[in-house]
Amino acid sequence: MTLDPSKDPSCILAYDWGEPYTNFAIDISNHGNQGLIFGAVKQRGILNHALQLDGIDDYVLVNSSPNLRLSEEFSIVMWVYRFDEGRNDGNFNKGFDYYGYITATNVPQFRLVNIAGVAKVILGTQNIRARKWYMITRVYDGSETTDNMRIYLNDAILDAVGTLAGPIRTSSSSLTIGATTPTIELMKGLIGSVRIYNRAISEKEIRELYHYGENKLSQVRFPMFYREKRKETLALNI
Questions:
Q1: What does the pLDDT look like over 163-206, one tens digit per residue?
Q2: How many CA atoms lie within 13 A of 59 on its CB side?
Q3: How far apart are alpha carbons 85 and 105 in whole angstroms?
Q4: Which residues on neighbouring strands pair with residue 51, listed in sequence order?
Q5: For the whole model, what pTM was predicted?
Q6: Is residue 45 scored above 70 in pLDDT?
Q7: 204 vs 206: CA distance, rounded Å
Q8: CB-neighbour burial class of residue 145 (10 A; exposed 0-12, middle 13-18, buried 19+)
Q9: Third-level CATH fold of 5-235
Q10: pLDDT recorded at residue 122
């Protein structure tokens, strides 16, 4: 696996939030899936930068494109850092075709709907604690075998499995990041690197992504986040 999303044609969206002074999320893959940032502020974080969201009205909206209408197999990788526990923190949602968030009971959720309208939800067992970075990977491998839905935490720790016969339903709905919708389950915290692949990445590849991000996190020299919008200063635990 190449860790450079611009050199991996299977990576169809990649955000590292490194573009200063703009409300655009620039896709550093070669697929042009730019996003529009509403309210959230770019900060220094995992992979050197992160997006800080206030849990009130901050989110990212990505216009639907054909390559985001995932139906056969895919993987969504996201680094997250929650400010509080006991709340629903939206990670991503595309028309409820594919949808993931962290529940008020502090575990990751992954929901898919197939073309027959059948929904499957799986819940992790590991707690996503506040004030700590986690890499959450959600995979659908598109096979007809059991356990074709999976949630991994960090270094390919398998946290949940489930089965849903595909293909997955697709729609022209926009992709929301950092919330379930602009008014539901808005995340309060930081989102670091985001990657979407149009294939099921392997556990070996998940470990490579995790250690790459972990190494970048260890290089952060200023472990404080200052938010101009709310005048908040927040300590980052590494």
A1: 999 899 998 999 999 999 999 999 999 999 999 999 999 999 99
A2: 24
A3: 8
A4: 42, 191
A5: 0.91
A6: no
A7: 5
A8: exposed
A9: Jelly Rolls (2.60.120)
A10: 98
